[in-house]
Amino acid sequence: MRTSLCDELGIEHPVFGFTPSEHVAAAISRAGGLGVLGCVRFNDAEDLDRALTWMDENTDGKPYGVDIVMPAKVPTEGTQIDLAGLIPQSHKDFVQQTLLKLGVPPLPDGEGGEGVLGWLHSVARSHVDVALEHPIRLIANALGSPPTDVIERVHAAGVPVAALAGKAEHARRHVANGVDIVVAQGYEAGGHTGEVATMVLVPEIVDAVDVPVLAAGGIGSGRQAAAAMALGASGVWMGSYWLTTAEYELGNSSTQEALLAAGSSDTVRTRIYTGKPARLLKTRWTEAWASAEAPEPLPMPLQNLLVSEAHLRIARSDDPSVVSMPVGQVVGRMNEVRPVAEVMTDLLAEFDQTVKRLTDLNR
Amino acid sequence: MRTSLCDELGIEHPVFGFTPSEHVAAAISRAGGLGVLGCVRFNDAEDLDRALTWMDENTDGKPYGVDIVMPAKVPTEGTQIDLAGLIPQSHKDFVQQTLLKLGVPPLPDGEGGEGVLGWLHSVARSHVDVALEHPIRLIANALGSPPTDVIERVHAAGVPVAALAGKAEHARRHVANGVDIVVAQGYEAGGHTGEVATMVLVPEIVDAVDVPVLAAGGIGSGRQAAAAMALGASGVWMGSYWLTTAEYELGNSSTQEALLAAGSSDTVRTRIYTGKPARLLKTRWTEAWASAEAPEPLPMPLQNLLVSEAHLRIARSDDPSVVSMPVGQVVGRMNEVRPVAEVMTDLLAEFDQTVKRLTDLNR
């Protein structure tokens, strides 16, 4: 399973692994793929710097990348206190009442924190600044093409830019803006995602642009990787599947328990996580937001600020039935905890078997 | 592109073509696939008999099948007049007002008709009776496994039964009921469809049952067929893609115009066609039903009776912007009218190229 991207990026296999965990990202890179560290959880650029320094020391010199969350248009900006003033009281009340109903305890005194600020443009820019001080081989943007000046800076450092797209017209726009690799992310993917499924979206984007396309959404096995490559992709982009790897340390046991138990029908695409449609695990938390009395989610970045304390409380509550977690429909295949290297070895072996099986169909 | 199903059914290629047109179905069979005629539009069993007799004379002795719409549980049954009494006046008013707003003229005096009765259990049973008097090689059921007695009768005639499934648990139940072939139909498919996308659903169902699985949803090219086979399918089931073939004669020019112009984002999954979730072309008609003042769609078979006159009026209105038409996301690839044989030849050639390309990736 080799494409021209392997030579361009210095990787063995065109398997791109997005993860918020530097431990998982490093393991993906060590296994011959490209680990891509999600930066949105780093409010403080120094924390990101420490994580990347750790990766520099733990990737055996293998390439890795980072993923930022930066809209092309600068959205509402400001400190958390400025923004909090834009959140209606009725929304805050709904969140508090829902947590009470779901039995999610308050945080211990003194805990709390500032929420996730990575959705802010200024913070995402600080992630780029820090990342470029490390030997990164890719910057990907979860919200399409970054602003042109950011693309130019990244290119000046000799680093290619990847951007997620859920429609062919978005992919065309990204490439016109200077993006080097398009990640065609289908409906079934976890996190921010569009309405067109991977099977339809990937060939449409491959035909629409003249840069390498990675397929994302629904990929967790060698058969699925082979399907993605059959559709014309130059590589696969996997996010959800690493959430149940042994190296993943960011979650707590209730999150992992919920993911291992979930089937492919147990996800929902909703705006409640960030204000933009994103696929989450279906739990009592997402069901509460789907009820008749729930308010409409707020636009990005307000929605994430609204629910950020709730996310902390939910994470501490240790109750699998209320987890708030982005994950794709491939969660149905995530039924045991395995090391990253084993996931990669199995995927590549099944890919080989699949290609042989397809060849035999034509005999 | 050969699998064991080819030998079992006497076909050249494992390409199953569902279509309401006997002209298209016959052309698919002549081209080496298995044409599967949708029966739901035949209110009168004699009309179906005539269509199948025509197919017997126009398929060069090649195998073909039929598709019925029969829930395993018998739903509300009765004559159209009995059932019409169960439809709330407010629903009828909404339909009339919407057609007025959309500028859809009434039917000429004397026209009207009885609506589509194929959704009724008794009518679907009459379709089975008629079909078994012809040399059919497959009966497929769009709504899962038919009742056990129907399966037994069909088996006694030496004909295998296929059933559509949108979840692995449905597929397991179908096979336990005696179904021989499962059609794993993903979210992106046209008509009745579930929420799990083809990329995730197909391998899940392949792993869940020990009968051949056909992949449906999002397939209209050789790359997509190769992806489906990579996922473990024993063949592909295509429905939407034939709607813009030259042999298709059931639609009117406005329907075809709307399909040719639509992109992959121009569909919507909604209950307004039959009462069960089905993917339709997104038009001013579907948008009206998505508005705040629209009522909830009625359960099957009432919803289809409610809108059946509207469908006739819409079809006669010759306005592409109000078409009511089931179609999958693959509509984005349906951009020109082509003969069935050409579609088949191109699909097979692209399949071959794709398998060669995949083989090269492993060198």
UniProtKB/TrEMBL annotation, chains A, B:
It comes from the Bacteria. It is an enzyme of class 1 (oxidoreductase). Pfam families: NMO. One of its GO terms (molecular function) is oxidoreductase activity. Keywords: Flavoprotein, FMN, Oxidoreductase. Its EC number is 1.13.12.-. Transmembrane segments: none annotated. PANTHER family: 2-NITROPROPANE DIOXYGENASE (PTHR32332), MONOOXYGENASE RV1533-RELATED (PTHR32332:SF38). This is NAD(P)H-dependent flavin oxidoreductase. It comes from Lentzea rhizosphaerae. The lineage of its organism: Bacteria, Bacillati, Actinomycetota, Actinomycetes, Pseudonocardiales.
